[in-house]
Amino acid sequence: MRAFKPAAAVMALFMIVMSHPFSALAAEEGVIDEVRGTVTVESFEGAPRPARAGEYVLAGETIETGPDGFIRVIMGEGSVLELRERSRIEVFDSRADESGTRRIALFLGRMWTTVAGNSEGSTAMEVTTPTSVSGVRGTSFSAGVGLDGATRVGVDKGLVDVSSEQGMVELGAGQETTVEWDQAPAAPAGYNADEEQWRQWVLSRQDQVVKHGKQIVPFVVRDVKKSRQDMVRLKKTGDQRMKRLRDFAEKQKARGKPVRLTSRQKKAIAGYVRDVVGSVRELYISDEKMVTRYYILKQIQLDTQAHPELYDQEFISTVNNAMAELDKLDIEKIHQDNRKIISAYVNGVDEFLKKHRLGRYKEGAPEAQDRRQALKKARQDYNKNK
User: Fold this and answer.
1) Domain ranges in the chain?
2) Of the chain's two ends, which shows fewer C-beta atoms within 10 Å, N or C?
């Protein structure tokens, strides 16, 4: 490894973090293969555009399908994600994980995914919903979220760990589970992969809101607040970890001249960077729990407005009061700020490691300039083999 100025090198990380806007360095996480019906992609800055085959999906973008919508996205390494009607997801930056784990937030609706090139021993994808986090260690699975925030996960092949704050289950091929609000995942049952049956399951969750909404809404409000509190704690931890890098840089700067990094110093820097990446991952999960839960409450409020005949006035007032309470917290702005923080750390650390030849998050991962070509090839291979 070449010699370089440690102070300048480490401080460059912070200059990168502060100077680069998200849009300039957003990583391409997928390429759109097929679109049917109404499908919208929303940029990090909140600008919507119609989804079109051949365009790229960037980290931090959301995809939403209308009542007639369908989209297929080819992800890195040839993984395939399909989103059904009335669904919404957000795509996270896979560079923010040492293992390259892909992270998706499923707000509402249904998705099906097959993960390419993954062994059952490693987590290739994590899917966050309002009521669960699923760690995918297999190759093919489905996930759905209903209007009440309940989650359903089914496995075609491989293994998936489904967890809530109340417990966890491991699903094998041919198994599925559901996660209701404030409950552990149900015991594994036989997986029904019928497309129409899954569609009906999602639609049926409106009945659960009508019948049990008075119990569900307080859980939503409580958990949104809890997620927000978790983020305050995680940000403090992240600040402490970043301070280690700053302190290291200041010590080197005080020497007044360039020095060659020792093996111990290299390991220290690598450890600091891993700690920062760990904080980013924890912050992401907490942020997505907050925003997906908030989104569910918004959808319940919209449903009471669209179908007032289904709900009594007391429940409608409860929902409106809950939304007014959470709106004071400015959840959407917090989410936007969190995404900026996350993307800045990801871009800063990634450039820092590459610039000073300290390794990459994932061995064999394409450089930024090659990501588009890799996705194009993955799309070509998919269409050749399907």
Assistant:
1) 26-205, 216-355
2) C
